[in-house]
Amino acid sequence: MIAIVGGLGAALSWAFATLSSSRSSRLIGPFSVIAWVMTVGFVVSIGFAIATPSGPLGVAELAGLFVVGVSYNVGLLCAYAALRIGRVSIVAPIIATEGAGAAVISVVLGEHINVPTTLVLAVITFGVVLAAVERSAGDARDPHLARAIGLSLAAAASFSIGLVIAGRLGATVPPIWVVASSRIVGVAAIALPLLLVRRLRLTRPALPFVVVSGVLEAIGSGLYVIAAHDGVAAAAVLSSQFAAIAAVGGFVLFGERLQRVQVAGVGLIAIGVTALAAVHA
Q1: How far is CA 261 from CA 88, 95, 144, in A?
Q2: Residue ranges per domain, the chain?
Q3: How far is Cα 219 from Cα 251, in angstroms, rounded to an integer?
Q4: Contact (CB, 8 A) for 79 and 152
Q5: Mean confidence (pLDDT) of the chain
């Protein structure tokens, strides 16, 4: 039950964080958004991290935490840049292919994957291709579609690297430390430099969006960690559905419209992401 509730909670948190970020990114730009999201997330998570005891960390663990933090921040930056110019209903499902990317990285590192996993990865890839198709008939073509998809794929790739390394750190590093370290990297590498050069933007309309995104990103990560302790398979299946929830939210809240071939592509991505988690159960 914990895996189900936690996984669904993570999916809802990340979905609404994505929807909120899509608005704030268009108001103040992706760099300022990630700076504030990391700052808010740092405030939310640092207390829990300090209160969580851990043994001494070696060079490998510290380096791993740093790489996870960089991967997470680069991934969010690409995601926010994609959300600034692209539709949530396309961007979110592509970003959700991070699990497929992690599987590919594992293969490169020497892990053997079975035939079902290979077939699922092929389905996800085909879904991305269909989501990228835009015919000239009907509504006007989106001039930013290709760039938004490229940024979404970059975000998924960066998140994938973090997933692989974070998975290897799980045995020796408390999960909340992984959450907090990503926020520390974001504050140190993005927020403080922007503040020093006076390029850290925040407007009154954007304020509630960055606060909501920062809180929900941290809560979603925490809920997923709790859910994964009770059952990784169920947690992975449910939390990956943030993309489907965000896509529906983009349609309902923002009036986004997709062509049929793009709807088919988004559907294949969602099915493939769910199937990948089930195959690795």
Answers
A1: 16, 19, 18
A2: 2-279
A3: 24
A4: yes
A5: 83
